[in-house]
Amino acid sequence: MFRSLLISPAAALVASLLFLTCSPKSTWKYLRSEDLKAVPASYDQTADNGRINGQGRPLTTGACNLYEAFEPDTNHLDHTPIRYIRINFHWMNSVDGAQNLKEDEARKFTLELYKALNYSMENNKKMWLPNGNNTPCLPIRIKYQLTPDPTRPGDDGIYFHYDDKLYFYVTRGRNRNLYSRDVIEKYGVQPDSVLNIFMMPHHPDSLKSETYSAYNTGVALTNAMKLAAKWFEIKNPWDFRGVLNHETGHIYGLSHTWAYNDGCDDTPQHPQDCYSRGQYPGCDTMTSNNVMDYNAQQLAFTPCQIGKIHQRMAALNARQRGLLAPTWCKLDETKTIVIRDTVAWLGAKDLEGNLVIENGGSLTIGCRVSVPPGGRISVHAGGTLILGEYAHLHNACGGRWKGIEVEQSGELSGVVLTGGDPRIEDTDNGLSSAIKK
Prior knowledge:
The structure is a single chain. By secondary structure, this protein is an alpha/beta fold. The chain has 2 domains: 25-66 and 328-424, no CATH class; 83-312, Collagenase (Catalytic Domain), CATH 3.40.390.10. Helix content is 16%, strand content 21%. Strands 1, 9, 12, 15, 18 and 19 form a 6-stranded mixed sheet that branches. Strands 3, 4, 5, 6, 7 and 8 form a 6-stranded mixed sheet that branches. Strand 18 and strand 19 form a beta hairpin. Helix 2 packs across helix 5. The protein is elongated.
């Protein structure tokens, strides 16, 4: 038999007052430069939890230039915000309109290709080479964003140009123009902030040659790319996503993998004898599906390749960074990152929300971190923030952020420690690099 326990309103009030009396008072304050403390000599500064990079070396807080430091952490995917590459499309045609798809067909093709591109970025594939490998298949954390010109009413980011001098693509011979930027300079739209993609046919004279290979191809030109194909013969736009992703890889620093040292240990060199599985005897185990090889798939990005792209995207002086949608330039509190365990950020980060370190959480920052305008870093009582030698806290958009606030709850406080000489800039509350040791 159970009996209900009745508590009078007076007793409940007394209990509440006792709870409030016994609970430690919580206060917050923004740190100033004189509040920062150096890491004690007894502190183990190898704050990487034993992580080892591809060369067998421990990752340290000087890892800003290591690709591994930029690989998405599958335990904390929100620590690697999705980056959006802004793109537009230009369909080149002859003046008579006979050398490429009609506008309605081309627009339909473009929108389906756009869907296919983002599907491939959301669904990375496991590497086929080397056969039987255990290379992790990580999320890529990159998407494309079709970007109209806001100064053009009704613009959709898909353009059509009719020019007998510039519509075609020639890969070799004295008239080759794959590296010429003439078409980009004449027809490019928002070239400083949008990746311009030119969809060009092979020259009709080239197609008449028995020795000319009119395959699907392209070339990357920093802030633009040219893609060439027999567009009339491509029935499924999804078949072209690998070619475009390949050129995007070049734009963000990736190299061909099969016969060269591309700086990544997880992209094996191979003979490049097989274009697809089943093509020849042995091709079932010798075919690559890596995005930077020449093959029928081009759907797999390795961890190192993903890290390399994100490193280039985070480089403040990289021209390709300007092609990204600057999602880090506006505070979005729904994108706040909360640290509850022990984490080390050894690559650069461009945050989109606030940063919170909870009781029991510890974050070591070993590279550049941009806090959005009006954003803050909050260290709860019992939380720890460690600013390593190469830490650089700032706002990457020319704005200001509020600074680092720390909670005091009774005798328990949030802790902020520094090692070396971190840089702190652009705060509103008196916190800068003038750190007293």
